[in-house]
């Protein structure tokens, strides 16, 4: 009779070697309900537990993660989509060593995201999921159709 737990031990070892971050989107159809506060506080609590966390503010028009952290980001997620800046170039470090990407505030022109730019985002994201334990998407209200598709493709849990 073979060891029944052998397969489980093998799978556990494979899972450890193929580490991928858990991705969580914080979503609501209405603005001002506390999505950013929830994202920030959950991220910081996970950091306190020794987890590596990346928080991405995906609100292109009214991003406020950096403001709530009391910081001013040099670059935003818009720089990735418009100028092909990498995650490493746009990640900022906040309290408790929280890695975050700002969404930018006061952006008045909503831009259309072309497939090559989405592909670039996915390349950057694929690298990030091997470097972090959790990746939070703080999603703005009033999503564009393309952005909605992006979240659904890359997110394992929707709140």
UniProtKB/TrEMBL annotation:
Gene3D superfamilies noted in UniProt: P-loop containing nucleotide triphosphate hydrolases
Keywords of this entry: ATP-binding, Nucleotide-binding
UniProt cross-references to InterPro entries, sorted A to Z: AAA_dom, P-loop_NTPase, ParA/MinD_ATPase
The organism's place on the tree of life at top rank: Bacteria
SUPFAM superfamilies recorded: P-loop containing nucleoside triphosphate hydrolases
Alphabetical list of Pfam families matching this protein: AAA_31 (PF13614)
Start and end residues of each AAA domain: 21-140
Protein's UniProt name: AAA family ATPase
Species in which this protein is naturally found: Paracerasibacillus soli
């Amino acid at each position: 009779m073979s060891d029944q737990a052998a397969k489980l031990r093998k799978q556990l070892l494979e899972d450890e070697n193929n580490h991928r971050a858990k991705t969580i989107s914080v979503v609501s159809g209405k603005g001002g309900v506390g999505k950013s506060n929830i994202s920030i506080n959950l991220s910081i609590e996970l950091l306190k537990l020794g987890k590596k966390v990346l928080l991405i503010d995906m609100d292109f028009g009214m991003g406020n993660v950096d403001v709530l952290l009391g910081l001013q980001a040099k670059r935003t997620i818009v720089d990735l989509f418009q100028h092909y800046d990498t995650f490493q170039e746009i990640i900022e470090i906040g309290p408790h060593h929280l890695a975050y990407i700002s969404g930018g505030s006061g952006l008045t022109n909503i831009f259309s995201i072309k497939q090559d730019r989405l592909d670039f985002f996915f390349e950057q994201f694929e690298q990030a999921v091997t470097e972090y334990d959790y990746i939070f998407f703080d999603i703005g209200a009033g999503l564009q159709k393309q952005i909605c598709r992006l979240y659904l493709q890359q997110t394992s849990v929707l709140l």
